[in-house]
Design a protein that fits this description.
Length: about 200
């Protein structure tokens, strides 16, 4: 599977990241506000491109302060993931748990995209106004299924129309092919609630 960080509005200059209080992320090494991807370093556990500020990247390049394997992406740190094996095991557990819990949900090939937020399927209501769904548990991670096979990062972000921090595309373990499901980590619980509403035009 692939996990990709999504920036909000990319600043015109790197320096603006340090001055902008509304930046999406922080440097994974020193935690100062930063949202510009630079260099080729990736999270040693999940492989997502690392958010490393200019100063820390330069210190690593010159050997003054090397970036260790403990410097991981915010999602891996948050979830306590320390190895690629743990990621694969976690993905498999989540997928099996979802399939087991919702085995009675059947979708036709032409059905609308489904999204899971609080363990229940949000019903598709095409002609209703977009209003944020209820999210009392503060869920920020969405499980989205039945996506078209050629859905890409840009299209999914457009559909959600809210701030996304990570996209995790789920692929078949045998073939490696994408089969229309993904996890999306939203920037906040409100972003998650509005994203569900945008996908399904769900009313409160």
């Amino acid at each position: 599977s692939h996990i990709l960080p999504i920036n909000g509005e990319s600043p015109k200059k790197e320096e603006s990241c340090q001055e902008n209080n509304n930046v999406l992320g922080v440097c994974e090494a020193c935690t100062k506000p930063w949202d510009v991807l630079r260099g080729k370093r990736r999270c040693p556990t999940c492989g997502v491109p690392s958010l490393i500020c200019r100063d820390c990247a330069e210190a690593d390049r010159t050997g003054k302060r090397k970036l260790s394997r403990d410097v991981r992406c915010d999602l891996c740190v948050k979830e306590g993931i320390q190895s690629k094996t743990e990621i694969k095991e976690k993905e498999q557990r989540e997928l099996l748990a979802y399939q087991s819990k919702h085995a009675n949900v059947s979708l036709s090939p032409n059905a609308g995209t489904d999204v899971m937020m609080d363990g229940s399927k949000q019903e598709w209501q095409q002609d209703r106004p977009v209003v944020a769904v209820k999210n009392p548990e503060g869920i920020t991670r969405l499980f989205i299924k039945n996506l078209h096979s050629d859905t890409d990062e840009a299209r999914l972000v457009e559909l959600l129309d809210q701030k996304v921090t990570h996209i995790q595309w789920l692929t078949d373990r045998q073939t490696g092919q994408f089969y229309g499901t993904a996890f999306c980590e939203m920037a906040s619980k409100d972003d998650a609630a509005h994203a569900v509403a945008n996908l399904h035009k769900q009313t409160v």
